[in-house]
Amino acid sequence: MYNQELKERFLLSYPKRSAEIYRDSLTKISKIEEKYQKDVFSFSSEELNNCFDDFKSKTLAGIRRLVTPVKQYIKWANANGFIENKFDFTDLFTDDVLEQYVWKYANQKSYVSRDEIFDFCEGLVNFTDQCILILPLEGIKGEESFEMTHLKFSDIDFSTGRTKVTNIKNQTREFIIEDKRSLDILFAAKNQETYIINNGMENNSKVKEFEIEDSPYVIRKMIRSNNSNGEGEPVTPNYVLSKAVRFFKGTKKPFSNEVTEEPFILGAEFLNITNIFKSGFFDYCMKLEKERGELETKDYEEVCMRYGVDTKLAYSYKKQYLTWKNNIIE
User: Fold this and answer.
1) Using CA atoms, how far apart are residues 165 and 307, in angstroms rounded to an integer?
2) What residues make up the domain containing 145?
3) Structurally, how many domains does the chain consist of?
4) Do residue 207 and residue 119 come from a single domain?
């Protein structure tokens, strides 16, 4: 971190957790400080612009989180006499200005259409793996992926699509899965008895196929001598997340992040379980827009309830949806 001793003095005025977040942001700007050979508090407005433009975030909230520590550090340096007669350029960087730093490419690529998800599913030979993409798309995720890992086949009426979901607080909600393609995949997973490892890709193992655990849950694992939760047990949240990473980001060496194998699904490096969930949320918003015209607050609250999101977050989700929609239209 450039001029680390001074920045550490600044961080001492914050609680430990806040200091960690601020330190991360200040560390990110170090390479630009090295380039200009001066502390960020001596940057011109143009240099600050280049600095903030280098931050890669898909949302305005993310940009704010990165920029705020820098702005506070500069104000602190001003107040404590480390800058002589310098105009505080940070006041120029209002939310309207910060909007330009949102990484629009990543924002566009972080969310996908419903049809794209089904295209991705075709690249996964195991229906149980396809379920890991389908469930969040249909609004079944929850805190720590609890809704995904605890959904049972008996919770789904395959003839009507009516589905009962239980969250981590043991609260339930019911809704209808309208897309027949989703129901077909979920039903196929119910009848899948064996699991093809590495989704059929070449590997060194002589055994290519394993039996699947006898479990009432939609997401199930293959049976290996050292790889079984025991019959009837839900998989762990980490199992779901690690699967998704393998789908979209491939296999990486620990610590180095060097990719040793390609992901099963190419061209989707910005995707993860949360982004698929939001893709489904946005898809539902678009569906309602076609039916009702411009959506009102109560409409976004309705989508929140359908997707198990606290209605207090309706405004935040509205902003994210509109930002995404505007980016794909541009």
Assistant:
1) 10
2) 114-261
3) 3
4) yes
Residues 239 and 289 in one domain: no
173 SS3 class? strand
- CA distance linking residue 181 with residue 115, whole number of Å: 10
Mind giving me the DSSP string for 77-129?
HHHTTSSSS---GGGG--HHHHGGGB-HHHHHHHS--HHHHHHHHTT---HHH
**Per-residue pLDDT tens listing for the chain (330 residues):** 888 999 999 999 888 877 888 888 898 888 889 888 999 888 887 888 777 777 766 666 677 777 888 888 988 988 888 876 566 666 666 666 666 666 565 556 778 889 989 999 988 999 999 999 999 999 999 999 999 999 999 999 999 999 999 999 999 999 999 999 999 999 999 999 999 888 876 655 565 888 998 899 999 988 876 555 455 789 999 999 999 988 988 877 666 666 677 788 877 777 899 999 999 999 999 999 999 999 999 999 999 999 999 999 999 999 889 988 887 655
pTM above 0.85, yes or no: no
Q: Cβ–Cβ contacts within 10 Å for residue 201, how many?
A: 11
Burial class (CB in 10 A: 0-12, 13-18, 19+), 116: middle
155: three-class secondary structure by DSSP: helix
